[in-house]
Design brief:
Length: 323
Amino acid sequence: MPERLLKILKENAGEAVSGPDLSGRLGITRAAVWKGIGRLRKKGYGIEGGKHGYKLLSWPGLSEEELSLYLPDKKIVFKQSVPSTNDLAIGLAEKREFSDKGILVVADSQSAGKGRLGRTWSSPPGLNIYMSYLLRPEISPRNAPLLTLAAALSGALALRAQTGLQARLKWPNDLVANGRKLGGILLELRSDPDRIIYAVLGIGINVNAKKEDLPKGIKATSVFIETGRESDRAALIAGIIAELDFWIRAIRKGEHAALVKAYRGISDTIGKNVRLTSEGRRFEGTALNVDEEGRLVIRVAGGGAERQLRFSTGDVTRLRGTA
Ligand code: BTN
């Protein structure tokens, strides 16, 4: 019950909700509401009681309870600090700890957060989202790149819906706003030739970080920097998971076209002149499209001829000028 009570208070954060309203909506007595408020206060929620009702003014940081409030059916592992949520999720998978609906690993901070291509992922406490989703998706390893696209898309859609920030996607896995990096996806898999044994989708998003909390030397940003408002990390995580479950189901059903169409719709790469580094080689050209296997299609000029090349992995930088 405190979960449902808290949900109503959070939806009306900063405004008073009357006792009779709460008891009516929850189908419980006013005494039970009062008891629930007491339990939430003990857990660190700042709830003011006045003649107009109860007003939620502050709440403790991210916690397993907060997350279960939004994701009651999910198995959640929450840690205050871990080296890397991806490594923790891989450890669970190697011990064969799975759940049909996936296991969500979330940490408030990481001491050895991992980025793509062996980079580190800055993960200070109290500010951002560091999460890994452990799955046994019934999809072919050939379609694994689509999982990365699905995770990036889910992050951007949840941000758009909840914060209004018009996040876009830099192929394959970056969330960006105004040309600066907001977040990224790190997919780690174990698979047989014909079957994914498990997939760990790591998602990192700079949410409430201020300028001074971001790593220096890279063009990074956060939801706070872009919108000027703090966002609720637990609600965002739940929004991302709801999207991700939807898109993973779409991949399983073979509905790649729908996924790629949604991804293209908010792409920050298509139509741009880019330099792509893939497997040690560099290519320059115009990004034309993302195909139904999630590959980036680039028109490359050279030797007097034009060629279209398709890449399933790579690191993209934008060149000056739009094609
Ligand atoms: C990238 O853009 O390079 C990918 C960044 C992925 C970071 C996330 S944070 C949660 C998860 N745990 C990790 O160690 N990395 C991913």
